[in-house]
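Troubleshooting log. The previous structure file for this entry was overwritten by mistake, so regenerating from the original sequence record. Sequence copied from the archived sheet and checked twice against the printout by T.R.
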Amino acid sequence: MDFSQYSIAAASTITVYVAYLLFRRSRNLRDIPGPLSPSWLFEEEHKRLRTALNNGFSASAVRTYLPIFERVAQTLTEQFDHFGGEASANLLPSLGRATLSTVTQAALGLSLDELGDEFISTNLLMMNMAGAPSPTKILQDAIMAFMPNAIRNFGRHLPIEPFKSLDKARFLSDKIGKSVIRDIRKAKSQGLDGVGAFYDQLVDRLQTNSLTEYDILEQTSLLLLAGQDTTANTLSFGFLELARNVEFQSQLREEIHASLGAGGGAAAYDNMPLLNAFLKETLRMYPAVSLSDRTAVQDHILPLSQPMMTTDGKQITEIPITKGQVVYLASGEYQRFDQFLLSQSRWGEDAHEFKPSRWLQDGPAHKGDSVGVYANLLSFYGGPRVCLGLLEMQVFVSELVGKFEFSLPIGDKSQTVCRVAFTLQPTLADGEKGALLAVKRVV
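Regenerated output below.
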């Protein structure tokens, strides 16, 4: 039996991502500069950085960003008003710009205009490259993954468009990051407050030498790209499912009106059962990164949550992993496993159905071992930004569903499908990224 690569969806394999000293990201992503840099990984060797990020994205810290999220959500309402009367409208560009705006204000204390047109256009290009890699780009990545580091470093300086775009994105994000750090330091030296954003906390750690400026700059491109693309994609899939489930959409709208009418802050969003069941089910069905991988840095025994039968008829309860082997964590597969495929599946026999009710009361989703950092899902893996992304989605969905009705457009050309690329992408019939829905103002 060939154990060179595995596709594992059992809940117990989360140890692959907890044991950072045993497994690391594969080389084809570890050494890429710019937005797809190693800062995506948050591995154990980045303990100092992880501590700072965990503090900045804790539940209490994220609540201070609520006014930002609500202001941006209101601008989305203004944009969606322009969709009224259209047979179909592409929601993804507006959602992408809004999510970029929230992370820019919350993390950097900047507006979109302050990022500059050049950065925004380059950022969009990077997302399109990651979402729809050409056959040539896929071949380049596959070849480079097996090259020695010296050759890989040399290859990055070749006049190849993907590398040129990566270098430009890195240069622009570093420029923005340096400017923010400089402004914060200047303000603090004058006894003034910083920019009132997450980077204030990171710059404070420069003073104690617990972080370096390079550490902070590494996060700029990560936050600006990841904070925009993944959340916008997830929201697009969520609105698509609401359009397919008209009755649930109406019930959710009623809950939003009843819960937010008297205010209540962040706690009000947490206390809406239908809203949070909807978000959990959206994250279950459409994890932003549905397939990820690690390379073993030493021999290891990977336990299985239940026995499995190999192709040669042998029953095993664990898998021996040797140094250098690749382990794939298929979070998208795990989160859709039903009881016909896995007897201990927590999702039940209807795992392939979009069914928010599974999260209400004592549904099947609440049973079994605890997995992941949120709702027994692997959608966030072990990342520290779960609170930020969750509150952002709560606010956006509440604002938009509370005021608009979403329905499926008429015509085959308007269909939106799901495509697996670097992230899970909503894709139109012509292959372009997008999510087409009919939008009608109801409040």
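The radius of gyration is 22 Å. Archived copy saved in two places this time.
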